[in-house]
Amino acid sequence: MSTTGYINISLELFGGLLSLIFILSLSLGSLKKERLERLYIRVLSINTILLFSDAAAWIFKGHPDRFSFWMVRIANFLVFTFGYILLAVFTDYLVCFVSGKGAGISRAPSRLMWWLALSAIVLVAISQYNHMYYLIDSHNVYHRQRWFWISQIYGIICMLINGAILARYRKYLSRKELAGLAAYILMPVIAMLVQMLIYGIAVLYIATTVSALCIYISIQVEQSRKFSQEELELEKSRTAIMLSQIHPHFLYNSLSVIKGLCQTDPRQAELAVDHFSGFLRGNLDSLTAGSPIPFSQELSHTRHYLELEQMRFGHRLNVIYDTPVTDFLIPPLTLQPIVENAVRHGIVKREEGGTLTVATALTSDAYTVTVTDDGVGFDPSGPLQDGKKHIGIQNVRKRLQAQCSASLTIRSVRGCGTTAMITLPRKAGEK
Length: 431
Known about the structure:
431 residues
């Protein structure tokens, strides 16, 4: 083997081990990963396969034994095939990153890239028979053939498409982000051109490794920090909403109800104490819950609250439960704040009171939780008329989206009532 061959093998094995270390360190971190981080790990994984495959092609080159015969052919096939897959996966990463910056980018570039990659792989498969890209001779030595340049042009075209995406949406990116992504496009293209012009130099996948590390330094570290910050804010949000539900007035009113019942109906007073302790326990349990909980648990917490309010308001508050579907998961403290809003700002604002309905349903692709009241209603586009700052619903909506990609829609008409609906993707709600 030539000195160039030994250098190529050493560089590629080093690059493969380096990529593998990065993959392990990223995979052993937080179990909950954003799609962008998962795509980045995919980029590194495919790049690792490419580096080890190309190294194997060099290691077994020229050896006549049967094992080397197959290793050279398999390794070269993997190098070509996974090279195109890497381009498509990087496009997925690029589209996901740009989309996360608020750009209205479609999935069309990703679909186009996958079609190009699949068509290129088909040509590689055909090349195994007609040898238009490369030939492995009787001595088990790899040789480029006359149409080899087509395989490289494919890669350059794909990189140019990625470059066009980057140029089109550059205004959404910082200079640091733009530099990191541009490095992953420019460096492999330069390396590809060098390999086309100088036979025997394997620098392409070393270039992709260095480029991936540039992305990690310029983008992924910041993304991980941002994700950790969002997790912290989510935790604060959960704490804030838990505390917001324990209103001093609600506590005083509940205790006053219990005190009155102790004198008039001790058995009802005992029941009220059970509901009061159940309500407080539900709030405290929600504070420590770091993940979605069974809906039945959230519904039980809500029932405790409504039972206390019914004892206070009597016939002015009528509650209907239509919940045939309860076997799914939901973020804690999402139903109860919505119900409390309906009682405080809807039903009890009417002199005669009204009816509140809690209903669940299962569609083909989602679980739905609907809270309906026939209270005074309000204008959803404007502030409530009590002069207070209402953060509960915003927090609920934020946590639903962050924890299980669920949505909260509210429809209300003044004088007619309000309907709030949680739509939870079926996959996210499954236990």
